[in-house]
Amino acid sequence: MEEMQAEAGFRVLPLATHRDDQVWVNNWVPGKICIDVDDITWTEVKVREAMLKVHEILKKRMPGFEKSFILDTASQLGTRASRRLIGEHVVTEKDVRSGIIFEDTIAMIPPFKEKTPPKAIPYRSLVPAKLRTSSLPGVALPLILWPMTC
């Protein structure tokens, strides 16, 4: 793992998938602003360059990867929750950790680890605080969990 991170210049994490012949490789690029064109461009170029380097490391170091190939990449690199609306309710870290079920819950996120509670998404989090004419499903939820970077 350290070799891949050193080569990439940022954190890289291979993750198992539901298939025994595929691996998902995730990455975290701190210190970039996800709405700054220079940072977006840097991230697009550097992550794709790193992807090729990391693949070569996996082929050399991980048994079974000798004949592997890159099956797919995103057409555009993106980030989770990089652009957020301010809803009538902003989901906080306390909300997430407590497992609170809101009276206007419209969706649930199951626990990924057995010791964590399910997470509830209230309808109010999709209703813009300053725009009264619509809700915005598909837009990143207003979550206050941790700073997001590219």
Low-confidence stretches: 144-150
Number of strands: 6
From the spread of the alpha carbons, the general shape counts as extended
Integer average pLDDT: 82
Counted up, domains total: 2
Helix content: 25-40%
The secondary-structure element order is HEEHEHEEE
Category from helices, strands and their pairing: alpha+beta
Helix count from the secondary structure assignment = 3
Described by strand count, sense and barrel closure, the largest sheet is: 2 strands, antiparallel
Task: Please provide a written account of the structure.
With 150 residues, the protein is an alpha+beta fold. It folds into 2 domains: 2-61, no CATH class; 91-144, no CATH class. 25% of the residues lie in helices and 17% in strands. The protein contains 3 helices and 6 strands. It has helices spanning 2-8, 37-61, 93-98; strands at residues 11-16, 23-28, 91-92, 105-109, 119-122, 143-144. The strands form 3 sheets. It has a two-stranded antiparallel sheet with strand order 1-2. Helix 1 runs antiparallel to helix 2 (37-61). The longest helix has 25 residues, at 37-61. The chain starts with a helix and ends in a 6-residue tail after the last strand.
In short:
The protein has 150 residues and is an alpha+beta fold.
